[in-house]
Design a protein that fits this description.
The chain has seven helices and four strands. The chain has 225 residues and is mainly α. The longest helix has 61 residues.
Length: 225
């Protein structure tokens, strides 16, 4: 009887998960559909018509140029997140042991960095020290700067993997394109404690999702009250 009850409970849990998954998927597809329709009508189609008329020169004309303001915002934000990654306290976490016997060590301070980032960003706006609408107004320039900057950063990682790998979990396949795309190091680090993957993915990247969401809200308040 107990086994049957437990099995029924498991089945109910799986059915609930199945229903939630399909509801979430349906909602995502529905929102994506209407979002794409709006984007096509309001943004993409006029640009496609412009590019059809002006071809390559039109593409160069509408491409946003990186500006000093864009680079300054990116640098300050990146330096701030790097400082939080290094300085905030956190629990020591051991990563999986690699095939060569290395075990990366991490400091689990992501949630602390998340709250400090948002509190700092909102406080800068609240006390009128920095206006986040500047970020919104320069997004195109920032994205353009990040495209070129990420290429330079990848070249740096490629050279570092050859010249100064962080561990024995590194090596070349002999093909430059594969090495550049796949990466040469498994756990690239600067020094002993600054993990580059954690910074690019979890700090600079994922923290920006929340920062940009706040930025959009503040811009909406500035425009519509």
């Amino acid at each position: 009887m107990a086994a049957a009850t437990e099995a029924n409970t498991v089945i109910q849990q799986w059915l609930h998960m199945f229903q939630c998954y399909h509801f979430s998927l349906f909602a995502l597809l529905l929102l994506s559909y209407y979002g794409i329709q709006w984007y096509m009508l309001m943004g993409l189609l006029p640009k496609l018509n412009f590019l059809k008329q002006h071809e390559l020169l039109g593409f160069i004309e509408i491409w946003p140029r990186p500006t000093a303001t864009a680079w300054k915002i990116i640098f300050v934000y990146g330096a701030f997140e790097a400082a939080l990654q290094l300085l905030l306290p956190g629990r020591r976490v051991e990563g999986p042991i690699s095939p060569t016997g290395n075990q990366p060590l991490y400091k689990a301070n992501g949630m602390a960095a998340y709250f400090v980032t948002l509190v700092t960003y909102i406080s800068l706006w609240w006390f009128r020290i920095f206006n986040p609408t500047v970020v919104y107004d320069h997004l195109g320039e920032m994205f353009s700067a990040l495209i070129f900057g990420s290429l330079i950063f990848c070249i740096f990682l490629y050279i570092k993997g050859h010249v100064a790998p962080s561990s024995t979990d590194s090596g070349s396949s002999g093909n430059l394109i594969i090495d550049f795309y796949w990466g040469i190091e498994l756990y690239p680090r600067i020094g002993k404690n600054f993990d580059i993957k954690v910074f690019t993915n979890c700090r600079f990247g994922m923290m920006s999702w929340a920062v940009l969401a706040v930025t959009y809200c503040i811009k909406q308040v500035a425009l519509f009250g």
